[in-house]
Amino acid sequence: MSQSILFLAHVDDSGATLPKAAYETLGAAIDTAKQLSATLAIGLVGENVQSAADTVAATGAPMLGVSGPDFAHPRYASDAAAVEAICREVQAQVVIGPATSRFLRVLPGVAQRLKAQVDTHVTSLEVLEGVLTARRWFYRQRLEAVIQREARPWLLALDSGCHAAWTGAVSTAHVKMLTTPLPAEAKRTAFAGIRVPNTDAQTIRPDAKLLFVAGAGWCKKQADGATHLPEAEKVILEFLRSSGASLGGSKSLVDQSGENQAVLGFMTHLNQVGQTGATPRHPKGLSTCCHGEEPHVVGWRFINERRAVNLDPNCGWARGKADVLYVADAFQVMAKLNSLFTEKARTR
Ligand SMILES: Cc1cc2nc3c(=O)[nH]c(=O)nc-3n(C[C@H](O)[C@H](O)[C@H](O)COP(=O)(O)OP(=O)(O)OC[C@H]3O[C@@H](n4cnc5c(N)ncnc54)[C@H](O)[C@@H]3O)c2cc1C
């Protein structure tokens, strides 16, 4: 039986394109379709899907869409109805979508309605001896599962940062629009707005090339016997602004914020990297004033190139956990980096 794959995505907040994770997932879906000699269809959800559809028209895949004001914002009932309608229309054996927060809330529910199986947080798709195989991590990225399923349809939500993004010229897409009437119950939840921290505090940037991690050392007494919190805040924020890096923190540091100790004002539990924190994906990482203990470093699994700055030559990073360890004072190193950024900006 010839196989068919449906790539699903929702329009991003701008309304004009897809989220970055969707282009990555599209790249994976196209590769998978090629390997399985399967047909590929594209399904899009949003207030208006045309501009986003134009960005993927060059794939040549047939496109379907569900649009209208009811589908502008994430809402379980309307998103699930839209995704279900597209899946029923296409009848694909395999459905692949990005693991965005919007889709992660919806895909498992839709799988239930379709009597399908679903796997989320998938990190790779490959075809082994003709069999579609997905991988994902469990137990805080310590165990990797290799999943093959006979059940179809099979819904898969792919994590971001796991595949090169598909790119192609923008051209006019022909999208077959599906009418998806929503019952009144599906509209009970109303979208009120998005609250975001002010720009200075918005320190988590999943698409940044660099993850900058601050540890508890920034708040500890330094060689002069005093803490230097205002200086630490200033130097870190300046570095984040100049470098565009994403900010991570060690558990010790973020816990201090929760305990109302004097700490870095912009550091929250959302920044925590590690076993009980996040496992971000960035090409490079720079750890400062952080010891590099295993429960922290397990969160660095998907950071490709790791560097650390620590006064202690015997810190955890020195034991094979970092590619480069600078045994140095992080206050001095970061101040020097900031002055290099300023100089670069001046001579540009
Ligand atoms: C079940 C469990 C789960 C855990 N989960 C996590 C987790 O998800 N994430 C996490 O981070 N931790 C986690 N931990 C805690 C972890 O084991 C460590 O306690 C924590 O990571 C230590 O944080 P730190 O390195 O910032 O602080 P510290 O251990 O206090 O280290 C501070 C470091 O700063 C250095 N330093 C001080 N001043 C300077 C300076 N001027 N320049 C350079 N270096 C300087 C010191 O040499 C020291 O190495 C977990 C622990 C357990 C038991």
Going across the major beta sheet, what is the strand order?
7-6-5-8-4-1-2-3-9
Structural class: alpha/beta
Helix content range: 25-40%
The end-to-end span amounts to: 59 Å
Give the integer mean of the pLDDT values: 94
Radius of gyration: 23 Å
Characterize the main sheet.
9 strands, mixed
Large-scale geometry: elongated
- What is the helix tally? 9
Strand content: 15-25%
β-strand number = 14
Bound small molecules, deduplicated: flavin-adenine dinucleotide
What does this molecule look like?
By secondary structure, the protein is an alpha/beta fold. It is built from 9 helices and 14 strands. It has a 9-stranded mixed sheet with strand order 7-6-5-8-4-1-2-3-9, with helices on both faces. Strand 10, helix 6 and strand 11 form a beta-alpha-beta unit. The mean pLDDT is 94. It binds flavin-adenine dinucleotide. Flavin-adenine dinucleotide binds next to helix 7, helix 8, strand 13 and helix 9.
